[in-house]
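Quick start: read one record
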Amino acid sequence: MRYIGSVLDLAILGLLGDGPLHGYEIRRRLRTQLGSLSNVSFGSLYPALARLEKAGDVVVVDAEPLAGAPATGSISGERASQRSIRLVSPRGRRARKAYQITEQGRATFASLLNAGPSGDDSRSFGLRWSFARYLTPNARISLLERRRGQLATRLEEAGESEELDDYARSVVDHAVDSIRRDIAWLDQLIAQETARNATDQPERAASATPENSPA
């Protein structure tokens, strides 16, 4: 459960890095921008926001009345939504909170982003790569190479399947094809990042030379 919670924390803090967001907008972006967390419910989101607020990683910056707020789709989600609401207008309309990341939250985000999972990160790789702009060039390459190594191991294991009938074999073959496509995609990304790193290094070195230093 802690691993799943840390993935959700990473996603929330990463989205808030671009500016304050309401809970409904956070969930919308989780669904549209971060496919690995597209099914996160309000019953999970609001407790996570409350946990991050209590830890000092996010703060509430304003509350805006919301007439006819969209239903969360579940009883638990509605209850969590109600718990997240601190203000109610005189007419009884809902009010929703906007969350903003703190400096401590940015440090937490960086720690979560750079911490490699102990096992297969098939769930979190896409999420981490979505926020790869916050990683150093070497960290981006390390992330890609680690994921490629995991997929290469899975590909090798898939080739060791025992005698299978045509139906079971078709499923294995489909999985193998998918793994191979992912590896090819990762190889392309690794090549791009390596070339970009090689190009950027001389520029960084040139900017550090004495003639480019301020007098």
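Confidence is low (pLDDT under 50) at residues 65-93.
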